[in-house]
């Protein structure tokens, strides 16, 4: 019987391994699977088993799972490749007949215009088609997504946005990692889909204020139209595609797709989610 974390070398994955250990899982019952050799070695130093895998290589996944295993599939970060990669994990898990599969998805993945949702929706469909007992964690936004904006604002004193009045209910990665550990350890969550997010939502002015508190520099909000946003990002050096993606995400925010506050995350982890300013402060401190 093992808890197998796919993507353990990533930021969420490493925090999830820590959360499993904090919540009493025995190190020898945890398998941390990932690709980066240095980060696998750092995980091995915690006493857990490690496995080198490539999500694009089914052979690397073939003998990873057994019947009694509970598997956390953390969505990969290679956009456009993920349905095939996740499908490789699901196929291997199905072949082994694992006890349960847990997947980190996106808010309302099956019914949203969120630009990142289609690969998550397709993965959820593959999981359903596999017939495996599963728990879906539809993770909302990480507060850490705003650390780059915080760094830019620290340098320029300006937060650029086309998100309008849209609100975001972010939580820290560590909150989502705790939730992943909780559901991994609790088989009664099989069959459930959780919509996870921070307890409170904030708008761009509140983000600018929080960045100001976290960085010690007053930050002014520069709220622009999507076209102007695209133009300014390209002028600042982003390629058209990346700028378009940033603007599209701000559009999703403006449309309220990232602002759900239902309390499911804090209920799962047993405490309030990390407030925006605290999450930013921790992230800024970690990068100094
Ligand atoms: N909700 C949000 O706000 C939000 C924000 C960003 C991302 N996400 C999603 O949440 C996931 C976890 O977030 P994170 O911050 O922990 O991301 P991350 O630090 O980039 O970690 C991604 C993980 O995926 C693994 N991976 C990617 N491609 C792989 C491959 N071909 N073979 C083996 N492993 C592969 C990486 O392994 P190596 O490091 O060993 O290569 C790493 O463990 C992301 O991958 C993304 O799908 C969500």
Description of the molecule:
This protein is 44% helix and 14% strand. It has helices at residues 11-22, 37-44, 82-96, 117-130, 147-156, 173-184, 204-215, 226-235, 240-254, 264-269, 276-287; strands at residues 3-6, 30-34, 49-52, 70-73, 100-105, 134-139, 158-161, 193-196, 220-223. It is built from 11 helices and 9 strands. The strands form 2 sheets. The protein has a 7-stranded parallel β-sheet with strand order 3-2-1-4-5-6-8, with helices on both faces. By secondary structure, the chain is an alpha/beta fold. The protein has a domain at 3-139: Rossmann fold (3-Layer(aba) Sandwich), CATH 3.40.50. The structure holds NADP nicotinamide-adenine-dinucleotide phosphate (NAP).
Assembly state of the chains shown: single chain
Total DSSP helices: 11
Cα distance spanning the termini: 40 Å
Q: Uncertain regions: pLDDT < 50 for 5+ in a row? A: none
CATH architecture of the domain at 3-139: 3-Layer(aba) Sandwich
Which sequence of strands runs across the widest sheet?
A: 3-2-1-4-5-6-8
- Any idea of the CATH topology of the domain at 3-139? Rossmann fold
The coarse silhouette is globular
In this structure, how is the largest beta sheet organized?
7 strands, parallel
What is the H/E order?
EHEHEEHEHEHEHEHEHHHH
Classified by CATH, the class of the domain at 3-139 is Alpha Beta
Radius of gyration: 19 Å
The overall pLDDT, averaged over residues, is 97
Bound molecules: NADP nicotinamide-adenine-dinucleotide phosphate
Helix percentage range: 40-55%
E-strand count: 9
CATH superfamily of the domain at 3-139: NAD(P)-binding Rossmann-like Domain
**Secondary-structure content class:** alpha/beta
How much strand?
A: 5-15%
